[in-house]
Design brief:
32 strands, Immunoglobulin-like, alpha+beta
Length: 612
């Protein structure tokens, strides 16, 4: 037999992966696979000499890499083995498959046998994530793996957070004090305590493992050409800057366990600054957890009991008003409302769009096994609107209802899954069901797939605003505004003009489809100004050529993209000075021109950077 776990759940290309391994085989090697469009073999390590003994299991809350004094005496830490991660590895979810050797550099056959066609196993496999060394460069989409949820359900070492021994401290829901994330079972290679509660729609794996929800969705993403960066709950918990380079973060499947740090990073540091989230998940953010000593996970309470911060304020929905259906759950899906919304573009028969009252996902059992809802008044609708009495954001729009009250046993609270979207700086979509990923990745239900495409394609194109600035010495005053609409900016412009203020700087950018203005004015009571806003290059260039012989020179220029079209905003002032211009160049070409002109005595007057 062979078991193992990574000391680090994530690392970067070029880093050293440390696996702690226990086996009675005299040697073993590690075969590395990456879960992309398929489960692809990457490379094999050399053979490692092993002590040839099965080290005893530690208790579930211990660091299994270290010697521990436990109730039955000293338990020896599992020995470490190092593997260099190639610098060529792209970000992804990787599976280390542990191959038992016979002592002569030959496989002896694992017990139980090693299945290399799936990332799933109870023994002999370990999951780790390779993060991007250049976040946000290859892609603006980040996939967050629910590492904490994997470990919460894993009972390797004697218990899960749902099955404590009598000697353990009890808490809400009879939870033990801690489980460790330094033991087998972080997505594969362990045992989920509830594997008896099989999924009737997909019995190929237990629910609370990577293979069940995450692997099919990742395969669908990469099969469809989406470039994705990957990270884990632990990364989000420990790295406050992790999300900043991205436009869209994906939460998939069963993403139940969230720390305060994770929520702060997601809500305050990302969504409220213009970042987008897509929750293709259910029972999301139900438990509030903390992490002690960097590896001991404990749940402290339900987020719904946290004053002024229920999970609804992040996701828009809550399991309090949703549904749970286990191995005998009924088949049902969503009924459409607010059908003109952009998420329904291209759905329905021949892509004509689903209509009010249309149904989708019923045959595929889209709702469940756990689903979340926003509370609404059942006597007022359809279309139903949130009552906003449970923390759901005021801008949340319900786009689909999956009603569980029709079934024996019903659900929780209002007992209706609610697919929807809200905006609070950035845009947040929620599919509100754990099985969204299965219906996309395994069943390929056309409407669920199209909605998924619409959400990803729209929300990956924009994200938090970033600032680039250059200062020079001066004693003059200035007035600034940031992130205003054109109407508010124009009103301020017209107010300041007769007071003698003139534009010094202007930047125009797009967040979630909305054009926003940042401007700085300086005192200059006599200088004239000609402006244009949102012109195409052709119109802008014609105006430029018209004004040049009249003695007008560019004062400000900003270029931005709306729905794929490059637009220009410019201001001219009277001047006789010459200028050299370039438009739409790559950084390499721009930098070469910069270096050439610097030596000739030219200095930057205007610079704008944009993405197409």
């Amino acid at each position: 037999m062979i078991q193992g776990f990574p000391f680090q759940s994530s690392l970067f290309p070029g880093d050293t992966l440390t696996l702690h391994v226990s086996t009675d085989a005299p040697q073993f090697r590690v075969d590395i696979y990456r879960q992309g469009a398929s489960l692809a073999f990457m490379f094999s390590s050399d053979w490692f000499a092993s002590p040839g003994i099965n080290f005893p299991d530690h208790e579930a809350d211990a660091d299994w890499s270290q010697d521990q004094t436990e109730e039955n005496g000293l338990t020896q830490g599992w020995p470490p083995f190092d593997i260099s991660v190639p610098s060529s590895f792209v970000s992804g979810v990787y599976i280390a498959m542990l191959v038992e050797g016979d002592g002569n550099n030959q496989p002896r056959g694992n017990t139980p046998p090693l299945d290399t066609t799936t990332p799933d196993a109870r023994f002999g496999k370990a999951l780790f994530v390779v993060r991007s060394p250049a976040p946000g460069v290859r892609t603006k989409i980040l996939y967050k793996l629910p590492l904490f949820t994997y470990h919460a359900y894993c009972d390797v070492g004697g218990w899960a957070l749902y099955t404590p021994p009598a000697s353990e401290t009890q808490g809400e829901g009879e939870s033990p004090a801690f489980v460790s994330i330094r033991r087998p079972g972080g997505g594969t290679g362990g045992h989920p305590w509830d594997d008896w509660n099989f999924d009737p729609a997909d019995r190929s794996s237990a629910r609370q493992v990577f293979a069940h929800w995450d692997a099919p969705f990742i395969a669908w993403l990469e099969q469809n050409g989406y470039a994705i960066d990957y990270a884990t709950d632990l990364d989000l918990h420990t790295d406050p800057n992790m999300l900043a380079p991205y436009s869209l973060v994906l939460s998939v499947g069963h993403d139940e366990y969230w720390s305060t740090e994770m929520r702060d990073q997601a809500e305050l540091g990302f969504i409220q600054r213009g970042g987008n989230f897509a929750f293709f998940s259910g029972n999301t953010c139900w438990w509030k957890v903390d992490l002690t000593d960097g590896y001991r996970l404990r749940r402290t309470d339900n987020w719904s009991k946290t004053p002024n911060r229920p999970e609804n304020s992040l996701t828009g929905v809550s399991w309090r008003n949703g549904f749970e259906g286990d191995k005998d759950r009924p088949k049902f899906g969503y009924i459409v409302q607010n059908h003109a919304h952009w998420i329904f573009a291209g759905t329905g028969v021949n892509g004509a769009g689903l209509q009010e009252g249309d149904r989708f996902g019923f045959d595929e059992e889209l709702i469940g096994y756990e689903a979340d809802g926003a509370n609404f008044d059942r006597t007022q609708g359809p279309p139903f609107v949130p009552k906003l009495d449970d923390g759901t954001p005021a801008t949340f729009v319900i786009l689909g209802v999956g009603d569980a009250l029709q079934f024996a046993g019903g659900g929780n609270g209002n007992a209706a899954a609610t697919m929807g979207v809200y905006t609070n700086g950035g845009t947040v979509f929620t599919g509100a069901t754990t099985d969204w990923s299965r219906v996309v990745g395994l069943n390929g239900e056309s409407n669920t797939v199209q909605i998924t495409r619409n959400v990803i394609n729209r929300l990956r194109r924009s994200g938090p605003a970033h600032y680039t600035a250059v200062w020079q010495p001066s004693t003059e005053g200035e007035i600034q505004v940031y992130g205003w609409t054109y109407e508010d900016y124009r009103a301020k412009y017209d107010e300041l003009w007769p007071q003698g203020w003139r534009l010094k700087l202007l930047d125009v950018y797009v967040v979630n489809g909305q054009v926003l203005y940042t401007a700085v004015w300086q005192p200059s009571s006599t200088e004239g100004e000609i402006q244009v806003y949102g012109w195409t290059y052709e119109d802008y260039r014609a105006k430029y050529d018209e004004l040049w012989p009249q003695g007008w020179r560019l004062k400000l220029l900003d270029v931005y993209v709306v729905n794929g079209q490059v637009l220009y905003t410019a201001a001219w002032q009277p001047s006789t000075e010459g200028e050299i211009q370039v438009y739409g160049w790559t950084y390499d070409d721009y930098r070469a021109k910069y270096d050439e002109l610097w030596r000739q005595g030219w200095r930057l007057k205007l610079l704008d950077v944009y993405a197409v």
